[in-house]
Amino acid sequence: MHDQILERFRACFQSFETGDVDPAALAQVYAPGVLFEDPFRRIEGRDALGNYLQKLYANVEYCRFDFMRHWQDRDSAVLAWNMSLRHPRLNRGREFRVDGASELHFRDKISHHRDYFDSNALLFEQLPVLGSFMKFLKRRAG
User: Fold this and answer.
1) For residue 133, what are the contacts with CB-CB under 8 A and spacing of at least 6?
2) Domains of the chain by range and CATH?
3) Chain CA centroid to CA 6, Å
4) In sequence order, what DSSP letters do the residues of 64-129 get, joined into one string?
5) Which residues fall within 8 angstroms of residue 6, CB to CB, at 6 or more apart?
6) What is the DSSP letter of 20?
């Protein structure tokens, strides 16, 4: 049964490739009171999550999640992923990639979803002037 939840989760996020967030797909994956967390937001409730994702992907020209591997136990899983993204205001409109992982807790549906990724790589490094500075700092530190 949990394999079905994970498969529906993957399918839901792969559907974001077109920038569409389907409330029916979210309802198949997430519990009504789901808690969602990422480096930018903490959101409670499936409807609020749907609104957040709709705004997040509204101007995205292309988004693809490649799920690399996952670890699973009785009522939780961690999925490692790579997101390829193209947005007109980021990276001069060229595609870029961000690695991350999603921690999921579930029973019949996902009740808690937390995403881990480098928010600098996703946002700040992709902005014209600030991005060059952020990449410079990362090279100096590494």
Assistant:
1) none
2) 2-141 (3.10.450.50)
3) 14
4) EEEEEEEEE-SSEEEEEEEEEEE-TTSGGG--EEEEEEEEEEESSSEEEEEEEE-HHHHTGGGSHH
5) 70, 72, 77, 79, 104
6) -
Burial class (CB in 10 A: 0-12, 13-18, 19+), 71: exposed
Pairing of strands 30-37, 42-44: antiparallel
**Calpha distance 32→27 (Å, rounded):** 8
d(CA 16, CA 92): 21
Which tokens is 66 given?
């490649």
Nearest to 80 by CA among 104, 100, 97, 106: 100
The label of the residue with tokens 């997430």 reads 30
pLDDT, tens digit only, all 142 positions of the chain: 578 999 999 998 888 766 678 889 999 999 999 999 998 899 999 999 999 988 888 778 888 899 999 999 989 999 999 988 887 877 677 888 888 999 999 989 999 999 998 766 555 444 454 444 444 444 555 5
Match 């569409």 to its residue by tokens: 20
